[in-house]
Amino acid sequence: MEFSSFELVTAEQLEGLADSMPRTVDARGELQAGRQFDITGWMADHFPEAAEKSWRGRVLWELPECPFNPEHQRTARITRLENGALSFGCFHNSCQDKGWHELRALKEPDAVREGKDKTRSEGIRVPELVRMSDVEPEDVQWLWEPYIPAGKITLMEGDPGDGKTWVAIQIAACVSAGYPLPDPATGRSEIKMEPGSVIYMTAEDGLADTIRPRLDAAGADSTRVYMLTGSRDEEGRLQGVTLSDIRIIEQAIQELKPCLMVADPIQAYLGSKVDMHRANETRPLLSELAKVAEKHGVAVICIRHLSKAKTSRQVYRGIGSIDFAAAARSVLLVGKDPETPVDRAIVQVKSSLAQMGPAMGFKIEHSQFSWTGLSNLTAGRLMGDEPDDKERTAVDSASDFLTEMLAGGPVTSESLFAEAKKQGISKASLRRAKKSLGITSYKTQGLGSDAPWCWAMPVEDDQEDDQVH
Predict the structure, then answer these.
(1) pLDDT of 203-243, one tens digit each?
(2) Regarding beta strands 411-412 and 368-374, do their DSSP bridges make them parallel or antiparallel, or are they unpaired?
(3) Given 361, 382, 403, which residue is the final one in a domain?
(4) What is the mean pLDDT of residues 309-335?
(5) What is the total count of domains within the chain?
(6) How far apart are CA 404 and CA 152, in angstroms?
(7) Above 80 in pLDDT, residue 388?
(8) Gap between the Cα atoms of 20 and 134, Å rounded
C-alpha cells in the first residue's frame, strides 16, 4: 500500500482515538478503557482496611462496614471480575439499589459529576452473584401478624361497599395512635404497637367528608396521618401521582418514615397508559413498589375491587392481572355474609410468610367501626360460592336421593330429574349433590344421537364428567 501524503496529528487527538477504540482484555484480565483505572490504588485511598482475596478468578475486597449504612457490618464487598469490570454490593435489602457507580458518586462526587468516571462501560453488563453463606438470615417483621407483614405488599380485596376502606382506615388509626389490633389467637384487641406515621393515597373518597371523619371516629392521631395527593413541579403546579412516580413515593417515605402506606384503590394509581389486565405492564410497577417497601420496611396495603367473573380460587378473584396477587405476600378478602349483611369479616386467602390467620369479624353501625372477634365466615361464604344452611340441607337430601336411586346401577338423567321433581328436589340441588358425591355421567353407546344420558355412582379408574343433562 502506498501513501501519497502524510498529516500530522496531536497527542490529544491520538488519546481521543484510543478512547473510542473497542475495549480489549489484556494478559492480566483487566478491562482496557482508555486510561487504566487503578482499583488497587483507589482501594488504598478510600478503604485501606479492606481485606483483599481471590475467588474463582475474581478479586474481592471485603469491607468492615457498608459505606452506605455503618450498621451493616461485614456485609459489603467490591469485586473485580476477570474482564476487569467492577461491582459493589451489600447483602442487606435496604442497599439493593447501591452499586459501583453509586459508591463512586459517594466517594468521589466531583469526579462522577464532571464525567471523569472512566470505569463506566456503556453496553457492558455483568452478572451479580450473591453467595448465600454471606447472607445474614433475618426474621420476618410484622405490622399485624400474620395478616400484614412489614416491608411487603398486602392486597386487600372486596366488592364495593363491603368495608375495605373502613378496615384500612381502622388499621391506619391503630398505627397512628398505637392502639392494639386483634390477636388471631383470641380475637381480642391485644397486639400492642408503638405509634407510627401513615401515608394514605385515596382516589375515591373525600378527605374532609369521609377520610377525616372516619379517622376521628376510630380515634386516630391525625397528626401522624398524611395524605399523598400528588406532587408539585418547579413552578409549584400540582400534578397527580402514580406508581410510575415511584421516586416521588419513595421521597415521601424517606421524609416521613411511615409504618404503613395505603393505596386506595390500587387501580387508580397505575397510570392511564397501563392496562391492569396485562402482566407485562403491571409487573414492573409492582416490583418497584415492593422494592421500596422492603428497602424502608414499610407495610403497603393495596386495595382492589373484585371481578364479576368467578374463578376456582378466591385468591384470583380481584380485577386485573394475577400478578397483583403474585406480588403480594398476603391477600385479605373483606366481605359480608349474604344472609346477614351486618356480619362482616376479613378472611386471609394467601399468606406467603406464615400460616394463614383465622377470619376476623367486624361490623359497621351508625358510621362506627368495631371489631367483633374471631369469625366463622369463609372466603366462599363471603363470595356466595358456599351454600347456606338451607341450601346445605337441600343438598344433603339430594345426596340421599341419588345414593338410593343409583344403588342398583346407572339411571338415566331424565328419570332422575322426573323423580326428584316429585319429591321436591331441585335440579340445582341435584347438581351440587352430583359433584359432591363424584357421580359420573355418560351417554349410552350404540343408540345414536338420541341416546340418553345416564348417571352412575363412581367406581375405581372411572373419570368424572361434570356435565349435567
Answers:
(1) 989 999 999 999 999 999 999 999 999 998 877 888 899 99
(2) unpaired
(3) 382
(4) 79
(5) 3
(6) 53
(7) no
(8) 39
